Amino acid sequence: MARIVMKFGGTSMAGIERIRHVANLVKREAERGNQVIVVVSAMAGETDRLIHLCREAASRYDTREYDVVVASGEQVTSGLLAITLQGMGLNARSYMGWQLPIRTTQAHASALIDGIDVDVLERVFDDDGIAVIPGFQGVAEDGSVATLGRGGSDTSAVAIAAAARADRCDIYTDVDGVYTTDPRIVPRARKIPIITYEEMLELASVGAKVLQTRSVGLAMRENIPLQVLSSFEDKPGTMVVADELIEDSAMERQLITGIAYDKNEARVTLTGLPDRPGAVAAIFAPLAEASINVDMIVQSVPRAGQKSDLTFTVPTESLVQTSDVLEKLKEEIGFEEILTDTEVVKVSAVGVGMRSNAGIAAQMFQALAGRGINILAITTSEIKVSVLIPEEYTELAVRVLHTAYGLDAETPE
Amino acid sequence: MARIVMKFGGTSMAGIERIRHVANLVKREAERGNQVIVVVSAMAGETDRLIHLCREAASRYDTREYDVVVASGEQVTSGLLAITLQGMGLNARSYMGWQLPIRTTQAHASALIDGIDVDVLERVFDDDGIAVIPGFQGVAEDGSVATLGRGGSDTSAVAIAAAARADRCDIYTDVDGVYTTDPRIVPRARKIPIITYEEMLELASVGAKVLQTRSVGLAMRENIPLQVLSSFEDKPGTMVVADELIEDSAMERQLITGIAYDKNEARVTLTGLPDRPGAVAAIFAPLAEASINVDMIVQSVPRAGQKSDLTFTVPTESLVQTSDVLEKLKEEIGFEEILTDTEVVKVSAVGVGMRSNAGIAAQMFQALAGRGINILAITTSEIKVSVLIPEEYTELAVRVLHTAYGLDAETPE
C-alpha cells in the first residue's frame, strides 16, 4: 500500500464529463489498495473569468477580497469531484483550505504555505476515505482566505504530499510528460521517462508548461517523487526524482537530458565604463535592491586604464525598470550609453550527465558555429550550458543541439 | 444614526454594472451617517448553474458537498462588492459565514441558523467599516459549510439584523414593493406602503415573489422592521412592521390589505365515510405522520347512521403521497372512493382590519356568487377569509374581490 497525492489541473476538471473521468482514475488508484488524497484546480478558464470580474470591479483591487473571489473556483470543483466519487460508491469528502487548515502567510494573491495540519487527513485514511482538497488556497493567520498565485495548485499538491508523508505526488495535466525539448520545434523530441529535480528546474522553459517551477523546488527540498502524466491518455509520464535514485543507471544515461530555450531575456549593454575598482558593484547593487534578477554577465576585458563595455541579461518585463535605475546613476557609475535588445533568446543544454564529461560546452559552440549562429553571451553551471543568441535563430539552434547531443527519436512521437 | 442591514438579491447583483449600482446605494446610506451591513445573493442564474452541475455529477448528491459548491456563488459576489466599495473609497470587507461565524444546524441544503457571533461586526462598526456578508450560508457544528435552502439570503439578512440589533432590514429586489394583489391580473393593484408581519405572511402567494416567507416569520419573532424596495428604481417600497406600529392609523386603514391566490392546492374527497367516532382522526393522523400539510377541511354533515363525504386540500406536490397513504388504510378507515382534483385555486382576502369588522366573509361570498363562481370550501382566520374555487375562475375572482373591497387604484400604477 502506498500513500499518493493525485493532482488534477484545470483542463482535467473542465466540465462534468472530465470530472467523471478524473473520478475513474482516482477510483482505480484506490482499488489498488492505495491511500489517496486528491488536489484539484478550478475548471479551465474559471480563474481567468473570476480575475476579470475583480478587475472590472476596481482597477486596483484589494488582494484579500480578490482571494475570496478566485478561491471559489477550486471550491466548486472540489465539491463536484467529491459528489462524483460518492456517486461511484467511494467514501469521498472535500476539505477547504480553511478546514484542514492549510496555513499560509498573509501575502494575499501570492501567499506561501506555512504548514498543513494533517490530523483531518489521517482520520480520513483511518476511515478508508478519500480527501478532495482545492489547490491554490489556504487560510492566513488572521483567518482570511489566501491564494498562492497562478499555478499554485501544483505547489499545494506537493506541500500536502510532504505534510502527509506521501510516497508520491502525481501531477495530472493535459500533456503526457516532460520532453527533451519543445515538440512544436522538434517533432522528434522524446518523452523523458525519469529526470532529476535539478534538471527539471533547469528545463523550466520546456517544463514550466507542464509543472510549476515552485512546486519542483518544494518537491526537491521535501524529497517527494513527482510524476507528471496526462489525464487524457493512459500511458506512463515523466518521473521527477532525487539524483541518487537514478545514479544507478547513470552509465546508460544521456549526457544531456534536454534542450531548453527562454525568450524572456533582454540584453543590456553599458558602454564606456571606467576601469576602476567597484565599478561593477556600483551597477549590480542597485539592481539587486530593486529586486531585478540579473542572469548572464559578460565583461569585455579592458586594457589597463582604458574604458570597457559590460553586457548582462534581465527578464524582459524588468527591462524598463533596469534602464530607469541605471539612468539615474549614470553620473555615479560613469558609463556612456545604455544599449538594450529584447530580440535575444537563451538556449540551454541541461543534463546531470555533463558533470562527469568535459567537452559538452565545446560541442555546443561548434554545432552553433557550424550554422553561423553568433553567440552573444555564455554561462555554465554544473548541469547546464547556456548561450545567448539572436532570437531569430531560436528554432534552428534548438534543432541543431537536439541532434548534436543525440536526443532525436528514431521516429516522431 | 441608525444601524441598517441592506440585502441585495440576485438580479441586483447580476454583473459588475449592477454591483456598482448597489455599491452606490450602500455608499449613500453610509454617507447619511448610518452603520451598514450588506448581505448579498449570488448573481442571478449562478445558483441554478451550480445546482445543475451537482445534479450532473450525481443524480443523488451528498447535500454536504452540494453546499460546498453552491455557497461559492455568494462568496464571489461578496468579494466583488467589497472590491467595488473599496474602489469608491469606503472601508469595506467581506466576511464568509464561517468567518463570523454564522452558526447553523447540521441539515445541509436546508440548514437553520442557530446563532450569529457579532464580535467581528462590532469591531467593523468601531472602525467605521462596512461588512459584506454572503447570504444563504453558514457553518455547521462540525465545521462544514451549510446553506439555508433557496431564498435563504432574506433569512440571513433578517437573522444578522436581529443579532446585530439593527434598526431596520432593507430587502432590495427587482420589484418595488408588495402589491394589493398580482398586478399581472389586476393592473389597478396598488403598492402597499405599510403592512403587518401577519398580513405579509398571509399574502405569501402575492408576496413570496418579493420576500421569502421564512424571513418574514423570523422578522416578526425578532421584531425587525423590514423594508422591501427596488434596487432598480429610487422610490419608497413597502414597510413590513409589527401590528402596534400601525394601530394608530387604523381608522384610515383599509379593512382588507390584499387579495392573494394559491394554485398549489389539490382537493381530495373521500366518499362514503362511516358515521362513527374517530373516523376523521383515522384519516388525518397518518397524513400528519407523513408530514403532509392539510389545509382546508369540509365535512358534509351526515344524517345519523348514514355515510358522509369528507373534502380537504393538500399541496399539489403531496397529492400522490396522500393518495398512497390513504389507499393503504382504505379498509381501516372504511371509505368508498378517493376523488382528487388539482384544478382548484384558493383565493384569500387578507387584512388586520377585518378583526373589528363583521361581514367581510359575507361580502366575499356575495361578490363571487354574483359572477356565478361556485365555492368548494371555506376557511377563515382572524385576518383572512379563504375560498376554494375552480382554477379557471382565478383571475375573475381576484379582480372581483379587489374591486369589491375597494382596493382598485384610480389609475393603473
Describe the structure concisely.
With 413 residues, chain A is an alpha/beta fold.
What labels describe this entry?
homodimer; 413 residues; alpha/beta; Carbamate kinase; VC0802-like; 2 domains; 8-stranded mixed β-sheet; 4-stranded mixed β-sheet; 15 helices; 24% strand; globular
Residue stretches of chain A low in confidence (pLDDT < 50, at least 5 long) are none
Strand content bin of chain A = 15-25%
Main beta sheet strand tally, sense and closure of chain A: 8 strands, mixed
Largest interface: A-B, 39 and 41 residues
Supply the number of helical segments of chain A: 15
The CATH architecture of the largest domain in chain A is: 3-Layer(aba) Sandwich
Order of strands, widest sheet of chain A: 3-6-2-1-9-11-12-10
Distance between the termini of chain A: 34 Å
CATH level-four homologous superfamily name of the largest domain in chain A = Acetylglutamate kinase-like
Helix content of chain A: 25-40%
- Average of pLDDT of chain A: 91
Structural class of chain A: alpha/beta
In the CATH hierarchy, the third-tier topology of the largest domain in chain A is known as Carbamate kinase
Q: How many structural domains are formed by the residues of chain A?
A: 2
Total beta strands of chain A: 20
CATH class categorisation of the largest domain in chain A: Alpha Beta
Oligomer class: homodimer
Radius of gyration of chain A: 24 Å
Inertia-based shape of chain A: globular
